């Protein structure tokens, strides 16, 4: 159970998260489940049995053996009638599913949808001050990504002022050299928002299918990772990170139809279409308008204009030597590295900067890992 620290140090429960309607299509009614129908028909039969015998004036103790029709004990049916009732129930159940499900779903698929029948939770912000704290933490850890941090800060405040539920910001693309912490910034943002996140590598050949799923009839038919995450976690506003977006491919069908990741994303980035998005696999409509999107790229070359027009593009520079040193000292403190090891790392990095080498976050992480290994190495006697 999520809890927050109250005044005086006492732990209190965090306010419950609001819920929104997520599945917009009509769902199977539990009252038309086969077992529920059998139960109702059986009860109807036993009630009819009682009324018939009462109307004939048969005493209670003689009803069970009065004649061949009523010779069965209470709540026990003739075998032939059990079979007929089961067949009626199956027929009614199938007809109901045909009305509400465009495609036949498996028991497992139906169970996933059933869990969200009454809506899903939406992670919310506690206050305007909470938004400021998130932005401050991000800026302290990733000062070179300040423009993207400012965008998220303003967007969260705007969403809160508009009285829309949930922590939600407009989509953003971080464009810059590899290894400068773009994905790390996005993951840290998800942690601070306390919302589930998922990362999709756009370089995969079937990235579009992996994200939004594939309709039935294909050999690899299945729900995408995005809808699966939202149904399993029962949450409306996860943070989705699309890495190396400019490298996304375009799988082709046997009939020459293209399934590019940008084309799959277009309806999910517009509020109007995202709020009534049809899943290719489930063939149900879902409200996907609360999802938070962060894209990363090493170059904007090749990215389609219709997509860029829906995303705030932020150019992220490489961190400066001062920012790199700040990162080293902060990470060294968290790892409890000695001052000697931290000084050795900053000195080596200073020499690399002086020599004109390009230093990125991955290089710094590797040096910190080596420092941790060195410090934790057992002493030989």
Automatic annotation (TrEMBL):
Keyword terms, alphabetized: Hydrolase, Protease
Enzyme Commission number(s) from the entry: 3.4.21.53
Record-annotated AAA+ ATPase domain positions: 168-318
Example GO molecular function: ATP-dependent peptidase activity
Pfam family, one: AAA
UniProt feature coiled coil, ranges: none
Protein's UniProt name: Lon protease
Biological process (GO), any one: protein quality control for misfolded or incompletely synthesized proteins
Organism this protein belongs to: Pseudooceanicola algae
Species classification: Bacteria, Pseudomonadati, Pseudomonadota, Alphaproteobacteria, Rhodobacterales
Superkingdom assignment: Bacteria
Keyword field contains Protease: yes
